[in-house]
Structures are given as structure tokens and as C-alpha cells.
Design a protein that fits this description.
Blueprint (H helix, E strand, L loop, with lengths): L1 E6 L5 H7 L2 E3 L2 E3 L4 E8 L2 H10 L5 E3 L15 E4 L22 H12 L3 E7 L9 H12 L2 E9 L10 E9 H4 L36 H8 L36 E4 L4 E3 L3 H7 L12 H10 L3 H26 L1
Length: 332
């Protein structure tokens, strides 16, 4: 069993993929040989959800900047989706060098000090290209200086069985003494030519009218919006959903977040229910969210899709097992 430290864990999207042992879209994602030994985030509400769904002896609500590496147990793997708002192309006016963006340095510090076999970091697509790739290269260099061979890949969650077009950058680092002995391969894109449709998450378009429907005032505001702000209105149940965000609880239609058109003649639009939003992210139906619906929406929108991350962790399992086999053969 490999020991895993989860930084910036949120409600546990990545962690669900790490441990495995869940069902999604009638498919079983087997339990993986990973054990969470330390989980941390600055959001207590998200950690309340985490504790409802996982067994971990050490769950800490604390700013990583104030966490000394000695507080973190030794481990085989460090995982973290460091906050990404400053790197997002949706917010081009954000300062890409603000304090939040520099949290990658905190993750690199932990990796350097704990020297796990592998680390996995996640961020938004824009992280690769802002300032002509300077930020991206700085981050990779930071982890390389910690003693790691770093691989990067732009993932689309839809290519791995998630009913959502969600593009995220994955950095995977293998400690140099291990990487020099065996080559790593990214997981196969299981659904590259066979994307899962939104209908998996939204089996029926119309539900009883109520709090999930947008007001006529919101609809009128949408009509007055610029065309590039209306992309969220064209969700096709036969295709993957557009990327969901932490704004799922919004009451305005003047945004780029996806919503559902229930009836064009009556101009009825609605947002996703929490269960639908969780399914869009590939959470299993039995996953329980703590707090209010607004809290749940935020946690869901900020999460890493469990199914996509399961494939990444399965590839790491396969890699480490091969490493162990090579080590055993050399010892003999």
C-alpha cells in the first residue's frame, strides 16, 4: 500500500480517484493500492465533505504556507491541485504572479523535503500559455530542482469517460533515481473517440419548476448580453457538458457557465441540481457533500474529476509495480 499526501484537497475529487473503489456510469473503478495519510486544505467546509467520504487519520485545515514539512508524514506520493484562478484564461486581468499563484512553491517545498517517489500537480489549461509559457517553465524548473523528472500533459476529462469537456494540465514528477531506471507512460485515452454524453448526468431535462429555474429577469439579462457570454445556453444532452465551475449556484445567466434550456417557447432555463453537477464531474452518486447546496456547488466546481484522476493514479500504480519488479530482479 502506497502512502499519499493530499495538498489543496478540497472536497476530495482527486482523492476519490486516488483510492478508487467506486461506480460511475455503470462502470466499476477498482480500488487502488493507495492510502491517504495526510489531507490538508484551507477550506473547512470542503474538508467536512472530505471527512464524510474518506478515512484519513490526519485531516488538517491550515494554510500550507504555515505548515512546516515536519508536520507532514513521510509518503510515497504527493498530490495537489494548487489554486489556479490567477492562471485561468477566464480571468485574464488577474495578476499571474500574485501570492495565490505562488502556492506551487509551497507544494514544491513539501516535495523537496519529503522526497516522495512521485508527485502529481493539476492546474488549468491557461497555466501552460500565460506570459508565453514563462510561468509554466518556472514551475517545472522548480520541481526539477527538487530532484524530479517532470512530465506534462494537457488532459481533457471527456477523453477518460467524464461527461464534461474539462481541460486540465497535469504535471507528474518521478524522483530522479527512479526515473532513470524506467520510462513512464501516460494512461490511454479510453474515450478519445467515444465521449460520454451529458444525458448520463441529466437523465431528464425538465424537473418541477422551482429554485433551479432562472427568473424571467435573468433570462432578459441574458438576451442583452454579448454573444460571447451566451455559450452556456447551448448544452446538448448528446454531447459532453462544457466546463463547470464554482459558480454553479449563480442566479444570473450573464456568464459563461453551462446551463440547461428546458423549453425554448416558454424561455425556461435552469441550472444543474447538485446531483447532476456532481455527476458531470464524475463523482459517484453515493458521494455526500457537507453544508448547504451553495457549498456543494462550490466544492463540485473546484474539484478534479475522480474518473480522470483514477486513470492517472492507475498508471502510477502500474509504473511503481514495474519499478518494484525491476528492483527485485536486480537484487536477485
Amino acid at each position: 500500500m502506497y502512502k499519499v499526501v493530499s495538498l489543496f484537497s478540497g472536497c476530495g475529487g482527486a482523492d476519490q480517484g486516488i483510492v478508487g473503489g467506486f461506480m460511475f456510469n455503470k462502470k466499476r473503478y477498482k480500488k487502488l493500492p493507495f492510502k491517504l495519510v495526510y489531507v490538508t486544505d484551507i477550506d473547512q467546509k470542503a474538508l467536512n465533505t472530505h471527512m464524510k467520504n474518506f478515512k484519513c487519520s490526519k485531516v488538517v485545515c491550515k494554510d500550507i504556507c504555515d505548515t512546516d514539512s515536519s508536520e507532514i508524514p513521510d509518503c510515497d506520493i504527493v498530490v495537489g491541485g494548487f489554486p489556479c484562478q490567477s492562471f485561468s484564461t477566464v480571468n485574464p486581468n488577474k495578476d499571474p504572479f500574485d501570492e495565490r499563484a505562488k502556492l506551487y512553491k509551497q507544494m514544491a517545498r513539501v516535495v523537496k523535503d519529503k522526497q516522495p517517489k512521485v508527485f502529481v500537480a493539476e492546474n488549468v489549461k491557461g497555466f501552460m500559455t500565460l506570459h508565453k509559457g514563462d510561468i509554466f517553465n518556472k514551475v517545472i524548473s522548480c520541481f526539477e530542482k527538487a530532484g524530479y523528472t517532470v512530465f506534462s500533459k494537457l488532459f481533457n476529462a471527456a477523453d477518460y469517460g467524464v461527461p464534461q469537456k474539462r481541460e486540465r494540465v497535469i504535471l507528474l514528477g518521478i524522483r530522479n533515481d527512479i526515473a532513470q531506471n524506467l520510462e513512464y507512460y501516460w494512461p490511454d485515452e479510453t474515450n478519445k473517440e467515444n465521449w460520454i454524453p451529458l444525458s448520463v448526468a441529466v437523465p431528464q431535462l425538465a424537473i418541477e419548476e422551482g429554485k433551479y429555474y432562472f427568473s424571467q429577469r435573468a433570462v432578459q439579462g441574458m438576451k442583452n448580453a454579448k454573444n460571447n457570454m451566451k455559450r452556456g445556453l447551448y448544452q446538448d444532452l448528446n454531447k459532453p457538458c462544457l466546463t463547470v465551475t464554482s459558480h454553479l449556484a449563480k442566479v444570473s445567466l450573464n456568464s459563461r457557465d453551462p446551463v440547461l434550456l428546458v423549453d425554448s417557447d416558454k424561455e425556461l432555463y435552469r441550472r444543474f441540481t447538485p446531483l447532476e453537477a456532481a455527476r458531470i464531474q464524475s463523482f459517484p452518486d453515493e458521494f455526500k457533500f457537507a453544508g448547504s447546496e451553495t457549498d456543494a456547488y462550490k466544492q463540485i466546481g473546484n474539484a478534479i474529476p475522480p474518473v480522470m484522476f483514477w486513470h492517472i493514479m492507475k498508471s502510477i500504480e502500474d509504473y511503481l509495480e514495474k519499478v518494484n519488479k525491476v528492483d527485485l530482479e536486480e537484487a536477485i
